[in-house]
Amino acid sequence: MGKIDLLELQSRCKRDPAGYREDFLMQLEHFNALHAVFSSSSSHVGTGVSSSKDHENFGDLVSFISHVHTVYKSESSWFPSLLLALIDQHFMRLDVSLRRRLVAALILLRNRNCVSVNQALPIFFKLFRCADKQLRALVFKHVVADVKLANKGKKNEAYNRVVRQFLRDAVRDENPVAAKKALAIVTELYRRNIWNDAKSVNLVVEACFHQHPKILVAGLKFFLGQDEAAERAAEEGGESDEDDDGLAGGDKDMNTKQGGKQLVSKDDVFKAYHKGVASSKRKKQAKLKRMIASVRKQQIKAEGNDGEARFAAMQLIDDPQGFAEMLFKKLKEGAQAFETKMLLLQVVSRVVGLHQLILLNFYPFLQRYIQPNQRDVTKLLAAAATACHELVPPDAIEPLLRQLVTQFVHDKARPEVVAVGINSVREICNRTPLVMTEDLLRDLSQYKKARDKPVATAARALIALFRELAPSLLEKKDRGKGADLEKSVKAYGTKVVSERVDGAELLQLERIKRKRLVAEIETMTEFEEEDDDDDDGNINSNSNSNSNSNSDDEEEDEENSEEVEDIELSENELEENDILPVKKKIRANGKLTLAELKRRHKIAVLKAKKVAEREEKLEEEEQLRMMEEENPIEQEKIFGDEDFNKIKALRMQSKLDENLDKMGAKKVKNAAETDLTRLVMRKADRASERRVNPDALAAIGIRRAHDKASRLATVLAGREDNEFGSSTARRLKKTGGASNKEKAKKKQLPLAARIHAATRRRNAPVQKGKRQLGRFRKV
Asked: Degrees (nearest 5) of the Cα angle 289, 295, 299?
């Protein structure tokens, strides 16, 4: 029976199983006969003894039986076990096309639960050893899809336990192809958020112990790539596969809100999926997804991006100290390629910085490679900065910092080298500020006046960092206005333990202010009511005394005018220290000079400022006293999102108030936002949890004096005085028709000439991959 006939019989068997039962049994007997031929001599299976037509017929029968097996389960109950045994025993010697069809039939039976996972997975992982790329891709897709389907509703721990055991054995396999495919399955399941737990990550850690360098590189790239992808997703508001599946599958209840306003309503989702034709639905759905991604991005930015997604895979390692020491041991062996060494270096530095490990031999190892001519030096410096944290003794990092400054920051170095060195020093000091000395900091601060913009920018960034950390280390002119000289770097090993929720005192202070404001309003209303009663009873007495009060007011005005004249004309108020008789404070007409008026105005402003500061101090003391009397606010209730948003707003307001005295009103808001961002990033997560971008260390904005643009400008400037110019310029300026030479090129030649030219081109000698094509006609 041909292939088309089997497909027709397959369709009819599904529609009418009882009517075509005899036909199915006939094909089953045909399959048994062919299987007996194939299994009669196992050494001849797939070696060429059987013809390709027999292979095709056998594959068609296997596909037919696998499709209708669920219809005739009792008649073909032995078929799954026979297929498993056939693939298990002869998978290396089977014909390539036949093997693919047998595996496809096994996948179909597994999808219909006719074969258990314990029976199918050993066969699938054995197939990874075959030298058939398409077959390995087919098995890979099936295993990933099978795991995803098993964990669709909820986590199937029993199933996951079995699959993980097979994956662990496959990762430890000596065959690099099978181990690499098993590792690829684990990484793909982690990327799709199907297996994103510690057990999956530690499978990748075991892969890094593999002897083959390709498996090691794949495991290292997983840690680097997944963490960078998580950061990009956190910054861009990316969605996972589960979100996409939920949106497409009907879970369209989008309660995305921002600022109390619902930006994506249920009506929008309904219109995108149920209104209009197919093309308009696609446009609406794409617009809806863009809107949701934009809102999530704004929410992540508003929340400060507190680093939950950073180094997500590395945070799940069970034994980070042992993992880092093992990788560092491989790094010191020096048997790997340069790219592998760089990957090892980056992973070790991130694990050390994230988990705050003590690996003191790592810093002298890095010190040997800190040179300007080192390959990928920015990646090396970024790894050195990432490996620094507050628990490392400053004595261990000081030789590294000294080597960095000596090699990169000096007068004979190029500007881009100096900028990279200062930026690297800033990143190291951001994590371990104790390593910086006062003399070194003041020397590096002198580069703020450099002519090259990247160098000056890097020096100013270093100054800005220490204005926040320890302003006393800077020179007086670099500390900035209103610097807190009492602020200093904490001693090594000092740990600050918070007794309250961060920002709870601001919330409690706001509540006290609100209570005092309500009390003041109540007292004012009581006084106003009393005043109204007094006014109603004393209207007549006030009307009788209007004339007397007017006369009193006139007398008071006269007295005030006399006092003003006394202030203007009195010479007793001259300063005692003023001994210069030239600067008169009273003019000839008896009025005060402009300088004296400015001086008195300044004194009045200072007095008002002191009075305001005194009142503010008294108010703060009163508020602190009330806070001490009250219980902490976090003991009275559990904070929610609204409370934390209010704390964030109060922090912004406090930063605005702090910056009012430092700069003008236009710069206050921007400076407060910058300071608040630094504060949030510093308090939300440690500096060691942030990845150092190697591109951020490089100097940007340097333009060489003899770059390509300047050379081209010089060439074009030299052509301006040329009398004749280039042929291209003459042709572009020409206003007439084509020349005889151009017409000859376009002239149609006789057939014999064209054949001769084609022959010459075909027989032309080949040099450097191109034929030497000469002209076939001279004009």
From this structure: 145
